[in-house]
Amino acid sequence: MAVTTMSELIGLALKGQKEAFEQLYNETVNEVYRTLYYLSGSHTDAEDIAQNVYLELYRNLDKYDHSRSLQGWLYGITIRQLHAHRRKKWKEYRNEQKQRKLQTAPLPANNHVSFAGDTQGDFVMEELHDLPEKLKEVLVLRYINDLPQQEIANVLSIPIGTVKSRLNQALVRMREKLGDKSI
């Protein structure tokens, strides 16, 4: 298939060409997965959420505004699915807590997520995951996914000034935690 733009792929996918959606998936899945992994810290969660991202994308292809960036639209879906996943996990956690209280069993120990890779990378990932979600989101979208600040504002539905402020706060906190002024 010799399709050059994402808009063309969406158009073909809307016409029922499965290969077009498959190509769209193949060209974007690594960015989506990477974003989800950096924001969730879990390979399993990133895979689960990515599946939901592409289900929502497929179901809503007809709602895509071709005058806007597909990347921004896709990251918007990604962030919404991440938030939905966290809400679901939080509800599950709260329900488990209630059940344990009813059974008068002690609460579980802190479940610490370990990351694969080198120890310095693990340290950076741990520090990244200690940031508040709002700061972590803008940091990952800007420096991992190279989105411009305006695109981040559109994806998160916040003013550009808020993006700049959150980026600054995130960088200051990471510098403090890592003791590195080069960040």
Automatic annotation (TrEMBL):
<keyword id="KW-0238">DNA-binding</keyword>
<dbReference type="InterPro" id="IPR036388">
    <property type="entry name" value="WH-like_DNA-bd_sf"/>
</dbReference>
<feature type="domain" description="RNA polymerase sigma-70 region 4">
    <location>
        <begin position="128"/>
        <end position="176"/>
    </location>
</feature>
<dbReference type="InterPro" id="IPR007630">
    <property type="entry name" value="RNA_pol_sigma70_r4"/>
</dbReference>
<dbReference type="Pfam" id="PF04545">
    <property type="entry name" value="Sigma70_r4"/>
</dbReference>
<dbReference type="InterPro" id="IPR039425">
    <property type="entry name" value="RNA_pol_sigma-70-like"/>
</dbReference>
<keyword id="KW-0805">Transcription regulation</keyword>
<feature type="domain" description="RNA polymerase sigma-70 region 2">
    <location>
        <begin position="24"/>
        <end position="91"/>
    </location>
</feature>
<dbReference type="GO" id="GO:0003677">
    <property type="term" value="F:DNA binding"/>
</dbReference>
<dbReference type="GO" id="GO:0006352">
    <property type="term" value="P:DNA-templated transcription initiation"/>
</dbReference>
<dbReference type="InterPro" id="IPR013324">
    <property type="entry name" value="RNA_pol_sigma_r3/r4-like"/>
</dbReference>
<dbReference type="Pfam" id="PF04542">
    <property type="entry name" value="Sigma70_r2"/>
</dbReference>
<protein>
    <submittedName>
        <fullName>RNA polymerase sigma factor</fullName>
    </submittedName>
</protein>
<keyword id="KW-0804">Transcription</keyword>
<dbReference type="InterPro" id="IPR007627">
    <property type="entry name" value="RNA_pol_sigma70_r2"/>
</dbReference>
<keyword id="KW-0731">Sigma factor</keyword>
<comment type="similarity">
    <text>Belongs to the sigma-70 factor family. ECF subfamily.</text>
</comment>
<dbReference type="InterPro" id="IPR014284">
    <property type="entry name" value="RNA_pol_sigma-70_dom"/>
</dbReference>
<dbReference type="GO" id="GO:0016987">
    <property type="term" value="F:sigma factor activity"/>
</dbReference>
<dbReference type="InterPro" id="IPR013325">
    <property type="entry name" value="RNA_pol_sigma_r2"/>
</dbReference>
